[in-house]
Amino acid sequence: MSETVLSETPAEGVRQITMSRPERRNALDRATYQGLIDALAAADADAAVRVIVLTGAGGCFTSGNDIKDFAAGGLDGPRVAIDFLTAISTARKPIVAAVEGFAVGIGTTMLLHCDLAYAGRGASFRLPFVTLGLCPEGGSSYLLPLIAGSKRAAELLMLGEPFGPEQAREAGLVNDVTAEGGALAAALEKARALAALPPQSVALTKSLLKRGGAAAVAETIATEARHFGERLMSAEAQAAFAAFLTRR
Ligand code: COA
After folding, report:
1. Is residue 234 part of a domain?
2. Which atom of ligand 1 approaches the CA of 67 most closely?
């Protein structure tokens, strides 16, 4: 059991996994990454689970990696983040994301690995890797140009400005925009529909959809992680973390 990752069964065949550290906008610290890895493995191992819904508590998806862990450096933080990215990018059962509020950094890049995603009208996305002196992660330097086009991917990954749910939909990060607060209901509706379909056929279709890019995604995650680990220790990145942690 994880204190910051909740697992429940809101409908037959549906496992809802909720990132829950609301006082930190669900920032992903090591324990939360590990909780997500464990929750995904448990859903994979449970034959009663056909679909996973991934969401965040307190009207927020996640503010991304915990910046205190970034600032502390060391290899532990990045390693568990990479293990999580490997788990979500190779999951066999369909994953449907429900995004309200902030989806920052890995909060946005994890959507590239979800099969379906819905965002409330108040959602705000951001890929502030360059702003923080870092570089893209999560396979985003390969997958985002593929789904959003190279110009849009450069805009989102290099400028790192916040963008809204309609832009996220145009970029291919989410399927649809719902009323504010409506993303989870939309995700659960699609999850129930998926859970009612023949599970082997659903799993086969997911694996065929992922097959073409799988090797490139794995290679990109590993290459990005190497650079990202080096960037974490750079003066540029450490200055950006310190600025965030001492901003008031
Ligand atoms: N890591 C660590 N702490 C974080 C965090 C993160 N990624 N995101 C938010 N927090 C903390 C804040 O420091 C604050 O703590 P405090 O109450 O002790 O001051 C608390 O969570 C609430 O955040 P706050 O900034 O007050 O909320 P907000 O609604 O005004 O803004 C964000 C939300 C997500 C826009 C803003 O917190 C933010 O930009 N976070 C950093 C996101 C980021 O750069 N992530 C890394 C991406 S690679």
Report:
1. no
2. 1
Residue 116 structural domain: 5-182
User: Cβ distance 99 to 119 under 8 Å?
Assistant: yes
To test ligand 1's pocket by mutation, which of 21, 25, 82, 102 has the most ligand atoms within 8 angstroms of CB? 25
In a domain, 53, yes or no: yes
| H/E element, 153 | helix 150-154
DSSP strand E in 21-90: where? 51-56
Distance from C-alpha of 166 to C-alpha of 122, rounded to nearest angstrom: 10
CATH number for the domain including 73?
A: 3.90.226.10
For the chain, what percent of residues have pLDDT higher than 70?
99
Length of the chain equals 248
Digit-coded pLDDT (tens) for 39-56: 999 999 999 999 999 999
Residue 165: partners with Cβ closer than 8 Å, 6 or more residues away: 99, 119, 120, 121, 122, 123, 125, 174, 177
